[in-house]
Amino acid sequence: MRAAVLTAYNTPLEIRDVPDPTPGRGEVLVRVMASGVNPLDTKIRRGMAAHAKMAPPAILGIDMAGVVEAVGEQVHQVQVGDEVFGMTGGVGGIAGSLAELAAVDARLIARKPEALSMEQAAAIPLGFVTSWEGLVDRADVTAGEQVLIHGGAGGVGFLAVQLALARGAHVFATGGPASQQVIRQVGATAIDYTTSGVEEYVDEYTSGEGFDVVVDNVGGATLDASFAAVKRYTGHVVSALGWGTHSLAPLSFRGATYSGVFTLLPLLTGRGREHHGHIMSQAAALADHGGLAPRLHSTTFPLDEVNHAYEIIENATATGKVTVLPHL
Q1: Helices 125-132 & 157-166, crossing angle to 10 degrees?
Q2: I want to staple 103 with a disulfide (CB 3.0 to 4.6 A). Which of 21, 166, 226, 301 is the partner?
Q3: Distance in angstroms between the alpha carbons of the first and the last residue of the chain
Q4: Which of 4, 320, 37 is nearest to 182 (CA)?
Q5: What are residue 302's DSSP bridge partners?
Q6: List of the chain residues with pLDDT < 50
Q7: Which residues on adjacent β-strands are paired with residue 102?
Q8: Residues of the chain by 3-state class (helix, strand, coil), percent to 5
Q9: Which domains, from first to last, does the chain contain?
């Protein structure tokens, strides 16, 4: 099969012919129809993501959608011909989705939503799993709560907004001037962080009380702002980018709580993979009921142009999630 191979950090991926994978016990062989590109993928290529534990030579690509071609022993939840999607590799030394075929752990996948194309389905897994772990597993968002999502037009934030809305929350999302229309169109109240400070939007939308749940998809100063925006006593901050050094004093002074999300853990440790498959099933159900769809970049790329796809992410010129189609 053809695959995009990382031969050395900070070099372009090389298109090579490599042996077809064989599904082992508990695995399925998937013909990859679409591979979603995440900022983490580009950081791995540059050697800037040691936590992902992916060393050259390696096939990258965390997210995928495709068709089951063969089923290994002890696999019962899917069968040959099923269209599936999931967050299945590209970290922890596991071959990723930038290839024509991938042998993946069946626990990590679910049937692709009928309402979405392969490209759309491949743009969902990492972002939705991150959002679910934060909003559902950690914060247990319920109907009527006020939820603030930082980076509401981003790859994770855009899906988080839809998930919070589906759970009945009143959703607010921050973004720059160019993101305001996108945020409003997906159903959230848009907040321009370049013109409105934390105290201002906390006063305007919560009468100074703070938001029940604050989701940080940006990190750095935005996580600090989250600590100042959360509701006193009962508020909860969730972040997928809680790295670096932060003062917990603003959070402590509000009597609020914090949780971190590290979405890669099941792939890195082998523990909790069934839960990721469950989350994918929930994503499919939500999409088929019209409550979930990704925002795609205007162009999809064949495998031969994978480095161009990565450049768009690295240069921050993507207008939505970027996908690579190995069979295009």
Answers
A1: 50
A2: 21
A3: 14
A4: 320
A5: 325
A6: none
A7: 30
A8: 35, 25, 40
A9: 2-123+272-325 (3.90.180.10), 127-260 (3.40.50.720)
